[in-house]
Amino acid sequence: MAPVNPPIASARLDIGYRVDRLFKPGGPRQNDPRTLVLLAFSGGGTRAAALSYGVLEELRRTQIRVRGDTHPLIDEVDLIAGVSGGSFTALSYALYGDRLFTEFAPRFLKRDVQGELLARALSPRAWPKLASPRYGRSELAADYYDEILFGGATFDDLLHRDGPVAVVTGTDLSTGARFEFTQDHFDLMCSDLGKVRLARAAATSSAVPVVLTPVTYRNYGGTCGAPYPVWVSDVARRDNPNRPAGRALLRYREILAIEDSGNRPYLHVVDGGISDNLGPRGMLEAFEELEASPQLRASTDFAQLRHIVVIVVNSRSTPSTNWDRSPTPPGLVAELLQSSIVPIDHFSYESVELLKDIAQRWEGLRKLKVLERRLAGETRRAAEDAVPVLTFDTIDVSFDAVTDEAERRYFVNLPTSFSLPDEAVDRLRELGGRLFRESKSTQSLLRQIQ
Prior knowledge:
Blueprint: E1 35-41, H1 45-61, E2 63-66, E3 69-72, E4 77-83, H2 85-96, H3 100-109, H4 113-122, H5 127-130, H6 137-150, E5 165-172, E6 178-180, H7 183-188, H8 198-205, E7 215-218, H9 232-236, H10 247-259, E8 266-271, H11 273-276, H12 281-292, H13 294-299, E9 307-314, H14 332-375, H15 380-386, E10 391-398, H16 405-412, H17 422-438, H18 440-449
Parallel strand pairs: 1-4, 1-9, 4-5, 9-10
Antiparallel strand pairs: 2-3, 5-6, 5-8, 7-8
Helix pairs in contact: 1-2, 1-3, 1-17, 2-8, 6-8, 12-14, 14-15
């Protein structure tokens, strides 16, 4: 059987599905270069896919006027990070574009995906394949996702789409590191992402441990001369005064681990929610890398930016249980699932707060630069013109914003599954749009962009 991610003889930075193409002339988004709009879609099965879809619908309905041109706000979206259930919405929009708004609900949201997967796994016709060590329940799921949603499309099919870059992630089972479906990450593995099916990426990102099997990728790292990302030389320097001690440095160590293909020829990947259930961890790493690396800031033309907006769509739920009222502990499967979900939910809150911390830190640095110029004798106006304002806003769309107690209880008790009643799907779609529309941060964003 041919490898699902074939090797490459040498890494070429001018081809492939990469995040940095957002910043290059002629890139996929010919929109306002002063504004960077990033979406993060959390995990949570159909619940997550429907809530994030509702936000996309609202972005499409919202008209803005920029430099004399009126267009939907969704045209300003540059990147969508999707995890687990959110990965289906992210990849489908990248593939379908506006067709998503007529096809996603019947093809995926309002289909009993979970029931069909269970039926196929129990069918004698699937047993010969499932008996193979190279074909597990997640591979069966990927084949089904191709039938109903992705049609065999690969990442090469996204290269020339006029839409945002979709970045979905899994979790390396051995190291706990994020496994990112971009050519930048696959360069480290000396592999071609372009031939990987979107359905396999979605199946990987949603491969919940115990329920689904890990998805295996070949690692050829260290054999193709792949260069390190431009920020690595700054982050690795011990004499760098801006050398981070957090995510960027950890990412550098993860890169070194991927390159060791002699000891790690296979990477087994599970649900992306284990390492980042909200989706913004990659953004946090990127912002820290920008802070630490002058080379990265220069290569991305960072100076032209005036607004960075991160919209986090968080479908975290807390279904009620009676465990605390019973002297008997829950069963093994429930215990395993709960032990993984609880830490994920706590880290989800932390991610949003860290984004807000970065915003405050960047504003503090800007004020410090203005003060330095004032002390050097410049007028206030000259100093502020020389250090333009860069706003950094975080919009949190989550069930916590629902003010009605009964309504909030309804949503947080929706299960994490790939099968929900049509009524629940429609209510989630409506809620996603409403919460985004009514957010004070959204109103502030619209004023800034226009």
